[in-house]
Amino acid sequence: MDRDLLKIKDLVCRRERVLVEQEGADAHAQEMSRRVAELETAMRARKSKSATVFRRKKQMAYLIKQRGAVSATEASKALGISRNRANEYLKDMEKSGLLASKKRGRLVIYTSGGKA
Fold it and tell me: What 3-state class would DSSP assign to 69?
């Protein structure tokens, strides 16, 4: 599991774009790749956001793609950032339509089913 996360971090941190191969990829993975590309376009349009913020949001998107769903606590541990910062990024991604959230008691779970 840790090796997979390191691979994700390595792939996301590269300058070239990482795309899901069209053949053999399910519709969910293709949709997530499309939404990540939309996020990338939106982040480039808003120049006030730093490259670090964009990179971490992209890492979170790939983490959710891999796991299916993630909480702010899980994302913070996987990416090595504070829970509050992870929660901020996840909420921002939800507002932009990339993610959807579901509450389970006090826990908020984020999935890749945002607005189309």
Answer: strand
